[in-house]
Design a protein that fits this description.
By secondary structure, the chain is an alpha+beta fold. About 15% of the residues lie in helices and about 40% in strands.
Length: about 700
């Protein structure tokens, strides 16, 4: 081989030399020489020596070419290394020429691409045998390359490629269900007639299913000792199904983090198959980390408040065993403040240990506060109340932590006012709200007119759309000075009375409904007791109102909702109680179809005076179709001059409503008419109500 290589190199060199000299070379016969003797050892000597090879080369003779004249030496020119000659615009006139117009270019479509798109397609059908019996058809179809091709392909090769993909897919599906010995074969059958469909036939032989043998855990000791095994819901003899294994391992992680192990890590699993027994011995590796207890708090990022207020929002104490559910609850409480753009909570090891060997972990809160200021508006209309429009501005963290300043203005046809409110949420305790407000209002209703200034304060535990609570309560004070008169007065300024009231409102509510603004199941109940003390010596009384509602789902689209209200004022005479504090019936939140606050006792002029007792009840059938709902309803109710409702002369109103469901609650439009209308009191034939949220 070496000799052949050298020979080829020499021939190439000779051809190159001939081209370079530009002379004619006559054919020359190689010299006849005797081959040298072969060496004794072929491994140690080349096939041909270099001297012999050079001697075998033919000489190059120049017999026809005349001698070349000597070339004169060029005159040396001084140049700068790597320098390029200067180029100016005059060197190439085309550089100054204008660019050709775009219209001159050929913009015809690519004929080759169009031809490729026009290539005819072939049709094919897919037949799969063997998956139905092991219930894998539903998992195979959405993942299948053949199925996703919808029976069309460019050629048979593409069908074969898709079938190959599906073979690998089926094998994975078989193993995910414990069929480790399964086989898959595919065949393509040409159509029996021209233009017919190619048949892709997949035959699946799943083989026997494997089941769990031994189930073992490889981890550090835990408290209790069987914590991990009890959290791993896999049993010997159970079929080895991948989704069950993954769910079981995820359950171990969840239970461990709920049981004092925040840094648990699920390791690799090992399943040792035994083909003779058709079993698999399962071993799960778990790194438990230290058993931990709650320590302190830390905070970083763009903070809305410090770590000391974070501690107020917790439902656990320092030293309690770590529980991830309580950490999630803390994060939800942080979100419900409405002060953050994003917020996250993570445990951080401290290296400090308790007497039992458990480690204290701090909770690090990553804060990114959001905008504090909000401008909001609300608009409503109902027959009897007219137009009600309110606008509010608030800074939710004007006085950190969570100290909000709220200014609200109302400009309606029957209500005008300005209210300033300070509210501190989570005041020294989770879910406790302290509020102080002052308001100046003017109310003009068919039943009374009043100018009122009041200062009120309360401590409450209330529900919000983001944080609905089962038990809520409130207590506080209300100091009010008002000038009021019933609607029957001809001249308000001369006949109105002045009232100076101190009230102590208290409310307790229990809520087992599934939504604050749009309940579909469950029930609610509340009781409100408000002692009224007259500072002008006109007497005192106690105002009590009980409310209850129930929601029963009728399938996925319909809900039957029912409500009842009972109100009583004890210890006071009707004419001694300010008109704004009496009990009225009628209107959008009461008996629809009747004017606002127009049911009950009337004076000699026909004006409603309000009463000392009240009864109301309502039933609605709420049917929802996507974002639209239809709500037929019927309401009954009446107010009475006596301190005990007599349930006589109950007024009935019925109607139908429309609901537009939005992400912040349903928009309500109700149209109602009274059944036993009293024409002498000017009750309307039709009443319209518009608002946000369900009627109850």
């Amino acid at each position: 081989m070496l000799g052949l290589g050298l020979l080829a190199t020499a021939v190439q060199a000779q051809e190159t030399a001939q081209e370079a000299t530009a002379v004619e070379v006559p054919p020359v016969k190689p010299a006849q020489q005797e081959a040298p003797p072969l060496p004794d050892s072929p491994q140690d000597a080349p096939i041909i020596t270099d001297d012999d090879f050079n001697a075998a080369l033919p000489p190059i003779e120049t017999t026809t070419a005349p001698p070349a004249e000597p070339t004169p030496e060029p005159t040396p020119v001084e140049t700068t290394p790597d320098a390029l000659p200067e180029v100016t615009a005059t060197d190439d006139p085309e550089l100054d020429a204008p660019l050709p117009a775009l219209e001159g270019y050929d913009v015809q479509p690519n004929q080759m691409a169009a031809a490729e798109e026009a290539l005819p397609e072939i049709r094919y059908v897919t037949v799969v045998d063997g998956l139905h019996d092991i219930h894998l058809n539903d998992e195979f179809k959405p993942l299948s390359a053949l199925m996703n091709g919808k029976g069309k392909a460019a050629n048979v090769a593409q069908v074969r490629a898709r079938a190959t993909e599906d073979e690998a897919l089926i094998l994975r599906l078989l193993k995910s269900q414990g069929y480790y010995d399964g086989t898959v074969t595919t065949s393509l059958a040409q159509p029996s007639e021209p233009g017919g469909a190619v048949q892709a036939h997949i035959v699946v032989t799943p083989g026997p299913a494997y089941h769990f043998g031994l189930i073992m855990v490889d981890s550090q000791p835990t408290l209790p000792p069987d914590l991990i095994r009890n959290a791993l819901p896999l049993q010997p003899g159970e079929q080895i199904i991948a989704t069950h294994v993954l769910a079981a391992e995820a359950n171990v992680s969840v239970i461990m983090q709920q049981s004092g192990y925040p840094f648990v890590k699920i390791g690799d699993r090992d399943i040792l198959l035994d083909g003779s027994k058709l079993t698999g011995d399962y071993t799960l590796k778990v790194d438990t980390g230290h058993r931990s207890r709650f320590g302190g708090f830390k905070s970083d990022g763009k903070e809305a408040f410090g770590a000391d207020h974070v501690a107020v929002l917790t439902r656990f104490s320092k030293g309690d065993l770590y529980d991830n559910r309580k950490v999630d609850d803390l994060r939800e409480a942080l979100v419900s403040t409405g002060l953050f753009r994003s917020v996250a909570v993570e445990p951080v090891a401290t290296g400090t240990f308790a007497d039992d060997g458990s480690e204290y972990v701090d909770l690090l809160v990553h804060q990114q506060r959001g905008p504090y200021r909000t401008i909001a508006g609300e608009f409503g209309y109902s027959t009897g109340e007219g137009v009600t429009a309110t606008a509010s501005w608030q800074n939710r963290n004007k006085f950190p932590p969570e100290g909000a300043l709220i200014i609200t203005a109302a400009a309606g046809t029957q209500e005008q006012g300005l209210t300033t409110t300070f509210r501190r949420s989570n005041a020294k305790k989770r879910d406790r709200t302290f509020q102080l407000s002052s308001a100046l209002t003017h109310n003009i209703y068919d039943s009374y007119e009043a100018y009122t200034f009041n200062v009120a304060g309360s401590v409450a535990r209330v529900s919000t759309p983001l944080w609905q609570k089962v038990w809520t309560w409130s207590y506080g004070f209300d100091l009010a000075a008002s000038r009021e008169a019933t609607d029957g007065v001809v001249n308000f300024s001369d006949a109105a009375d002045n009232y100076y009231i101190a009230a102590l409102p208290t409310k307790l509510a229990y809520d087992r409904s599934d939504s604050l603004l749009n309940p579909a199941t469950g029930y609610r109940a509340s009781a409100e007791v408000t002692p009224l003390i007259s500072l002008s010596g006109s007497g005192s009384s106690i105002r009590t109102v009980f409310d209850a509602s129930y929601y029963y789902p009728m399938g996925a689209k319909a809900v039957i909702a029912a409500r009842s209200r009972l109100g009583v004022i004890y210890g006071g005479e009707l004419d001694k109680i300010p008109p704004s504090r009496r009990l009225y019936a009628g209107g959008g939140g009461s008996v629809r179809g009747y004017a606002y606050q127009q049911l009950g006792p009337h004076d000699t002029t026909g004006a409603a005076t309000g009463g000392l007792s009240l009864f109301e009840a309502s039933v609605e059938y709420r049917y929802r179709m996507g974002d639209i709902g239809i709500v037929p309803f019927i309401d009954i109710g009446q107010s009475y001059a006596s301190t005990t409702p007599s349930f006589s002369d109950l007024r009935v109103g019925f109607g139908i409503g429309a609901r537009l469901y939005t992400n912040f609650g349903p928009i309500r439009i109700d149209v109602a008419t009274p059944v036993n209308r009293d024409k002498t009191n000017g009750e309307p034939q039709i009443a319209l109500y518009v608002g946000i949220g369900q009627a109850f």
